[in-house]
Amino acid sequence: MNRLKLPEAEVTMDDPSVTPITTPKLDDEGYLTYLGDDGQRYRLLDQLEIDQEASQRVRDALQASGPLFNQIEALCQAWIERMAVDAMDRDEAAAMLLSALDTALRIDED
After folding, report:
1. Strand 25-26 vs strand 32-35: parallel, antiparallel, or unpaired?
2. If you average pLDDT over residues 20-37, what whole number do you get?
3. Whole-angstrom distance, CA of residue 21 vs CA of residue 38
4. What burial class does residue 3 get, using C-beta atoms within 10 Å of its C-beta: 0-12 exposed, 13-18 middle, 19+ buried?
5. I want to staple 32 with a disulfide (CB 3.0 to 4.6 A). Which of 3, 44, 78, 80 is the partner?
6. Which range is least confidently modeled, 1-5, 6-10, 39-43, 64-68?
7. 3-state secondary structure the chain
8. Residue 15: closest CA among 5, 24, 27, 28
9. How big is the chain by its Cα radius of gyration, in Å?
10. How far apart are CA 62 and CA 64, in angstroms?
11. CA–CA separation, 110 and 103 (whole Å)
């Protein structure tokens, strides 16, 4: 999925990967966006027009899933803390967790 750097600049395949640091949310224009680790806001939807009804469904789904996302985040933090006590440092534990999640959640592109 192509990401669009707000307000105008498009992220191309040559650009480095950006790690989201916030959950996606709808901006004032109805675009689904997130904040990247570089401090820029990115659009997840490729300049698609979203009608008000679709925007509301996305907004409702994001709001309803907030508590579940918070639980997932807390579990991840607890796992990192547990691993960082004796086995490895926090950065190594976080990298291992992200790698495992990436593998587990990967959608076959075939």
Report:
1. antiparallel
2. 78
3. 9
4. buried
5. 44
6. 6-10
7. CCCEECCCCECCCCCCCCCECCCCEECCCCCEEEEECCCCEEECCCCCCCCHHHHHHHHHHHHHHHHHHHHHHHHHHHHHHHHHHHCCCHHHHHHHHHHHHHHHHCCCCC
8. 5
9. 17
10. 6
11. 15
Closest CA to 20 of 73, 60, 71, 57: 73
Per-residue pLDDT at 15 exceeds 60? no
pLDDT per residue as tens digits for the range 67-89:
998 999 999 999 999 999 888 99
Q: Would you state the structure tokens that stand for residue 18, as one six-digit string?
A: 């950006």
d(CA 80, CA 100): 13
pTM of the full predicted structure? 0.49
